Amino acid sequence: MRWLKAQERKRIRHKEKAEKAARKKLEKEAERAFRKKIKSMTKKEAKIAKKRHKQQLKEAKKQRKKNH
Questions:
Q1: Cα 62 to Cα 26, 33, 68, distances in angstroms
Q2: Integer angstrom CA distances of residue 12 from 3, 6, 7, 8, 18
Q3: Torsions phi, psi of 37, nearest 5?
Q4: How far is CA 30 from CA 8, 35, 49, 50, in A?
Q5: pLDDT at res. 10
Q6: What's CA 58's distance to the chain center, in Å?
Q7: Domain range enclosing 34
Q8: Where does the record place the region Disordered (predicted)?
Q9: What total number of domains does the chain contain?
Q10: CA 45, 51, 57, 62 torsion-angle sign
Q11: For residue 38, what are the contacts with CB-CB under 8 A and spacing of at least 6?
Q12: Do the Cβ atoms of 49 and 38 come closer than 8 Å?
């Protein structure tokens, strides 16, 4: 019985790690795309976009903490 519970915990932990890794990969790709997009903007537009992007990242992090 203990073995089954341990296996279940292990499976859940593995699934959570895989989800976290996938999310990180997507976030890094989105960050790269954002940086590339910023290069084509004027300085003023880029500054506004960076500020908005930073706020969105904070909100996403807050939402993840709330859901977990």
A1: 18, 22, 10
A2: 14, 10, 9, 6, 10
A3: -65, -40
A4: 33, 9, 14, 13
A5: 96
A6: 10
A7: 2-67
A8: 1-24, 40-68
A9: 1
A10: negative
A11: 46, 49, 50
A12: yes
pTM value is: 0.68
Residues in the chain: 68
Whether the CB-CB separation of 50 and 42 falls below 8 Å is answered with: no
How far is it, in rounded angstroms, from Cα 7 to Cα 67? Answer: 25
Matching residue, tokens 């341990």: 6
- The residue written with tokens 């992090």 in the block is 61
pLDDT in tens, 12-54: 999 999 999 999 999 999 999 999 999 999 999 999 999 999 9
Instruction: Determine the Cα–Cα distance for residues 52 and 50; give it in Å rounded to an integer.
Output: 5
